[in-house]
């Protein structure tokens, strides 16, 4: 056991985020932490690191356990050359080397205290060997190369790297520290496909435990074997990867909805009975029992569905057969990005563009869209080609001072506000949201505004550069479905495996200053890249799925047995209640008839008949009382 959580609760003011969380983290665990925005995923990771104090409960670490945490936002990181900065993050190894250097200097300067220094040197030597400090630079280089850095990058100052590349460096430092527990919050946000494949392979070989928050279903499918879901303030554990969880979750949703409908039907019937007979003396026990049952009736929580985009593209105008032709295209900044690009795209083509970040994919997309001119060569669009272009640099495409609504009215002034509001509703902007200035929006909200602008107008040639950045899993799926139905020509630059697998029919690889077609489909490309990564990481086989599942199966078996036992008991009790009520109904009817006869003036039969009816009434009342006592006992037994 690496870490244990008991009775954990978190509140922000009067708002309860979660409570009653109990679980352990064991070596080899591979866990996806999922839940809608605001469920407390990031907060829970911060509690596990010790950064955030819970409102109640405790987190206990085993002695010596080291936890590594990659947040979504860039934290403090050493400056200086990339390789040195990453190595300095491995504090224990660096401290051991520095101490060794100091001891050796002391030994050479003076012979005093030599015995003590030699003992300390032996201890430091043990630390150096334990942390792998001697080959720290070699290991750091291997990790950084795996994450997409080049040899030329190693000596560059950290200040020259963008935020995305600095996050990669931070991830590299975390991996190099070799913690017992890795907590990774959206680790693939800044990774291209090659780096993501490398991370998948690395995590498969990692000996410690891994917890992930990610909006990338393909990444989760490749890396986790359990899903911990935060919903309604509590945690549910599901065995299997993301796809298995998603399937079982849908089954659970349907089951909950059926059970919730049954409970509501029961509640409605009993409340109707109480309203009808609460003033009837003859029904007082049944009314009382219905009220007791209502108190016991559980409320079944149904699925809390997050808001989902609804994307519908306009009708696609026809274009000529040739949509785009590039001949001898090159692009030069302070270095040659690519050269000699000859490319032809025809109507209906679906092209996926892949390659390492910084290799020129976005530059290629801008040249295709006519936003940027090539240094040399020609770019021609065909007849009646209408281009829609989405740039991953959404801040440059949007005016921060204009509102969400104005961003659309600026490009389609002929549409009414009602039409534009309706369209924006499909991108999760409703009510006053459309009046917000773009400058105050989150990254995900800005991405949705930029997508809405691209998809508002009719096009027949879409060029999309990383359109799923900042989108959650549900929005990614909606976008993929909309693009799958699109009848125009599509060029898609993405590191989203599911999106490329669904949409791309041709693959272009931007690498080493060239743009080359890949022979084969996207799955062939991924498999080829994966083989290369496996070889670079060594011959060690990926770790088998951790042995947590046997425990999960046993727990689920016990839970199922308990559910079945309670169901059988409840069924028996409900049957007893129905039989008692069936016996009681004619007796209550007869009791009411006798009371009506006794209350009527001029009863035939005189006093003899009255005495006979009074005896029968007493007998029936005793029978009803006994049945009511049995009924109450049965209600108390109900689980």
Compact overview of the structure:
The protein is built from 20 helices and 18 strands. With 639 residues, the protein is an alpha/beta fold.
Write a structural description.
The protein is an alpha/beta fold and 639 residues long. The chain is 49% helix and 18% strand. It has a 6-stranded mixed sheet, sandwiched between helices. It has a 6-stranded mixed sheet with strand order 14-15-16-12-17-18, with helices on both faces. The chain has a 3-stranded antiparallel sheet with strand order 2-1-4, covered by helices on one side. A hairpin with a 2-residue loop joins strand 17 and strand 18 (514-517). Helix 9 (242-277) packs antiparallel against helix 10 (284-296). The radius of gyration is 34 Å and the shape is flat. The chain starts with a strand and ends with a helix. Mean pLDDT is 84; it is low at 539-553.
């Amino acid at each position: 056991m690496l870490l244990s959580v008991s009775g954990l609760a978190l509140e922000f003011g009067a708002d309860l985020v979660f409570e009653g969380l109990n679980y352990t983290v064991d070596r080899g665990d591979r866990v996806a932490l999922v839940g809608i925005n605001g469920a407390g995923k990031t907060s829970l990771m911060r509690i596990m690191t010790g950064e955030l104090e819970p409102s109640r409960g405790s987190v206990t670490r085993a002695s010596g356990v080291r936890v590594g945490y990659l947040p979504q936002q860039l934290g403090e990181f050493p400056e200086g050359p990339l390789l040195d900065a990453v190595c300095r993050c491995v504090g224990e190894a660096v401290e051991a080397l520095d101490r060794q250097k100091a001891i050796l200097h002391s030994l050479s300067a003076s012979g005093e205290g030599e015995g003590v220094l030699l003992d300390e040197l032996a201890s430091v030597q043990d630390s150096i060997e334990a942390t792998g400090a001697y080959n720290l630079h070699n290991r750091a280089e291997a990790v950084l190369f795996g994450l997409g850095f080049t040899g030329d990058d190693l000596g560059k100052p950290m200040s020259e790297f963008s935020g995305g590349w600095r996050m990669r460096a931070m991830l590299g430092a975390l991996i190099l520290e070799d913690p017992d527990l890795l907590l990774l919050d959206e680790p693939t946000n800044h990774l291209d496909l090659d780096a993501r494949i490398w991370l998948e392979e690395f995590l498969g070989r990692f000996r410690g435990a891994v917890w992930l928050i990610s909006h990338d279903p393909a990444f989760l499918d490749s890396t986790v074997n359990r899903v911990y879901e935060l919903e309604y303030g509590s945690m549910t554990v599901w065995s299997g990867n993301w796809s298995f969880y998603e399937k079982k979750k849908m089954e659970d949703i349907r089951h909950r909805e059926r059970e919730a409908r049954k409970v509501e039907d029961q509640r409605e019937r009993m409340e109707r009975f109480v309203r009808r007979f609460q003033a009837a003396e003859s029904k007082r026990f049944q009314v009382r029992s219905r009220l007791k049952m209502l108190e016991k009736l559980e409320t079944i929580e149904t699925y809390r569905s997050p808001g989902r985009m609804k994307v519908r593209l306009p009708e696609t105008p026809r274009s000529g057969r040739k949509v785009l032709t590039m001949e001898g295209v090159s692009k030069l900044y302070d270095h040659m990005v690519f050269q000699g690009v000859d490319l032809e795209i025809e109507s209906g083509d679906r092209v996926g563009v892949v390659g390492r970040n910084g290799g020129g994919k976005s530059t290629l997309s801008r040249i295709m869209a006519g936003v940027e001119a090539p240094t040399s060569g020609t770019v021609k669009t065909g007849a009646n080609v209408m281009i829609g272009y989405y740039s991953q640099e959404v801040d440059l495409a949007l005016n921060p001072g204009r509102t969400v609504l104005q961003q659309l009215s600026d490009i389609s002034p002929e549409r009414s506000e009602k039409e534009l509001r309706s369209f924006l509703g499909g991108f999760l902007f409703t009510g006053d949201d459309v009046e917000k200035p773009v400058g105050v929006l989150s990254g995900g909200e800005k991405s949705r505004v930029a997508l809405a602008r691209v998809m508002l107008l009719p096009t027949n040639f879409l060029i999309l550069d990383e359109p799923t950045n900042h989108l959650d899993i549900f929005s990614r799926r909606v976008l993929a479905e909309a693009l799958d139905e699109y009848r125009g020509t599509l060029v898609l630059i993405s590191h989203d495996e599911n999106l490329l697998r669904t949409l791309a029919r041709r693959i272009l690889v931007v690498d080493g200053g060239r743009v080359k077609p890949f022979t084969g489909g996207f799955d062939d490309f991924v498999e080829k890249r994966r083989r290369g990564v496996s070889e670079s990481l060594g011959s060690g086989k990926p770790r088998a799925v951790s042995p947590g599942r046997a425990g999960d199966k046993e727990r689920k078996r016990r839970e199922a047995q308990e559910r079945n036992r309670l169901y059988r008991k409840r069924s028996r009790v409900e049957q007893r209640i129905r039989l008692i009520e069936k016996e009681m109904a004619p007796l209550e009817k007869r009791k009411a008839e006798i009371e009506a006869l006794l209350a009527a003036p001029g009863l035939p039969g005189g006093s003899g008949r009255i005495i006979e009816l009074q005896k029968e009434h007493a007998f029936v009342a005793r029978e009803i009382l006994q049945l009511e006592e049995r009924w109450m006992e049965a209600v108390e037994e109900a689980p």
